[in-house]
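Reminder to self: tokens first, then the designed residues, so the page reads top to bottom the way the pipeline ran.
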């Protein structure tokens, strides 16, 4: 096979895979319509939310956890320090909703280099119920949030989770973050689950507490720097599967800067690289940049119009993404194709940087991630 033919095969193959992945996501994801009532035998649930710092939508997202239509549930918040500016907000929300059993636990137990996980230990131990939801503070919960998680529980389920869907972007770079989160990362997570390779997403996780306690408890999630990666491995070792909700829950974004988008995406890329390198390696072709370059190389060799190839490939890559975004009701504007182009231009340098970078910043904490050897995927986290 000549280099030109190999380039053409790669470009056509990756384009076909991209289109197929979006078709799978369109079939798998269901846009939420109406309200899902809780079942008559709905079990009591603890919602565990680690909080740290104030964000533009903090009060709205935290308040949503007090307005759920579910028979019996409690909120348990965890904050590392009483001086954190989010502490009075949580206390006020608890006071405003006396009908929902809720409490704020101050303090952390450092079991790992992951500050979020450390902030979950004491609330996990204090949970009153066997069903526990670990949810990020910036997640916006619909009224039927709990039942949307439970409805996807099956006999072979070890964990239910949800990837975030970026909504309410302000400015172009927030739209870039949306196309990273929604039509790229969420799409591939649903494709993975459809193919039997479901993996956890720490934004929202439904656990049966007794299941995790029998396998080391919350400390088992300290085996990896990212608690969702550790959760995936715990579930798979038990011979069970990670399943997803019918459609992602929303995360309001607001305004984003280029630096913020880069920092978030490189952090997640580095964590994926360390915990699941075999699945991370093909991500170099998850954007159009490499396939397009090879497609243009092949087109030039075979005398095919370069503008025609470029337009055709961009239409096949970004057109189905727009259809998926429209189906799900995700943010969609005339700038989306340009946001997709910028995102895909960033994928290659992010992918390369993720193989060599060791330091990431997580909620203001500097963390160093190192693989111990080629065969040992465990990591060391260090806070400074």
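Designed residues (384 positions):
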């Amino acid at each position: 096979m000549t280099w030109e033919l190999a380039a053409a095969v790669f470009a056509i193959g990756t384009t076909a895979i991209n289109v197929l992945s979006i078709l799978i996501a369109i079939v798998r994801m269901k846009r939420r319509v109406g309200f899902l009532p809780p079942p008559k035998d709905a079990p009591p649930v603890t919602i565990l939310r680690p909080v740290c710092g104030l964000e533009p939508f903090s009060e709205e997202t935290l308040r949503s956890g007090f307005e759920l239509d579910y028979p019996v549930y409690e909120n348990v918040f965890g904050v590392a320090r009483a001086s954190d500016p989010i502490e009075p907000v949580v206390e006020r929300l608890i006071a405003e909703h006396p009908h929902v059993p809720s409490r704020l636990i101050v303090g952390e137990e450092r079991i790992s280099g992951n500050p979020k996980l450390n902030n979950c230990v004491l609330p996990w131990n204090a949970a009153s119920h066997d069903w526990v939801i670990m949810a990020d503070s910036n997640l916006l919960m619909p009224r039927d949030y709990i039942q949307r998680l439970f409805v996807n529980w099956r006999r072979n389920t070890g964990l239910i989770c949800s990837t975030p869907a970026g909504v309410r972007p302000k400015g172009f770079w927030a739209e870039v973050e949306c196309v990273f989160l929604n039509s790229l990362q969420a799409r591939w997570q649903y494709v993975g689950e459809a193919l039997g390779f479901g993996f956890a997403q720490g934004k929202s996780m439904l656990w049966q507490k007794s299941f995790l306690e029998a396998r080391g408890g919350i400390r088992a999630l300290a085996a990896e720097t990212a608690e969702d990666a550790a959760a995936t491995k715990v579930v798979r070792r038990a011979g069970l599967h990670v399943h997803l909700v019918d459609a992602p829950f929303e995360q309001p974004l607001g305004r984003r800067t280029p630096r913020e988008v880069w920092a978030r995406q490189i952090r997640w890329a580095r964590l994926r690289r360390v915990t699941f390198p075999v699945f991370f390696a093909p991500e170099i072709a998850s954007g159009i940049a490499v396939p397009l370059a090879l497609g243009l190389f092949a087109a030039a060799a075979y005398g095919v119009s370069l503008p025609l190839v470029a337009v055709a490939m961009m239409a096949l890559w970004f057109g189905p993404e727009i259809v998926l975004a429209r189906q799900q009701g995700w943010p969609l504007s005339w700038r989306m194709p340009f946001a997709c182009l910028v995102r895909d231009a960033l994928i290659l340098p992010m992918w390369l940087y993720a193989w060599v970078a060791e330091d990431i910043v997580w909620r203001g904490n500097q963390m160093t991630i190192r693989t111990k050897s080629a065969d040992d995927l465990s990591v060391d986290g260090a806070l400074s």
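The chain has 13 helices and eleven strands.
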